[in-house]
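Pasting two entries for a bug report.
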Amino acid sequence: MIYSLLHGDLLSALRFNAVAVVALGFVIVAFAVWTYGRVVDRRITSWQHHRWAAPATLGIVSVWFVLRVLPFAPFTALRV
């Protein structure tokens, strides 16, 4: 997925790991908000400061890992 993103092939990156592409987008936004907060010298609340962020992330990643290994259709299409 990272190789595909570095070469500008977003569709291929989504094919390899769609959840990681979305998660990378969230991480980039969180870093940009944190950087902006440091520049203006105040704390800015972003998505990761909410109380549901960690459990939701854990749940989404856990479900994704299970769905990718199910041996029947349509989940076999998630394998690379």
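Entry 2 (this is the one that rendered wrong in the viewer):
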Amino acid sequence: MKLAELAEKTSCVIERGSPELEISSTAGLDLAGPGDITFLANAKYFPQIATTKASAIFLNAGVEVTRDG
């Protein structure tokens, strides 16, 4: 499924990246690879964004992220 289609179905906004990106699966930040979408629901896991291999990340609207995590 294209990222644009997934965003539309979940009422999300694509902030960066290609809407044409193909998403094939979901996985946790630490396990995700190319083609996977993952999520960040707790700011304490923000540092994992730097090392995740996920193609896209859902960000929970309630999570406030700062540069220092």
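Dev reply: Rendering is fixed now. As a check, the viewer should reflect this: The chain has one domain: 3-59.
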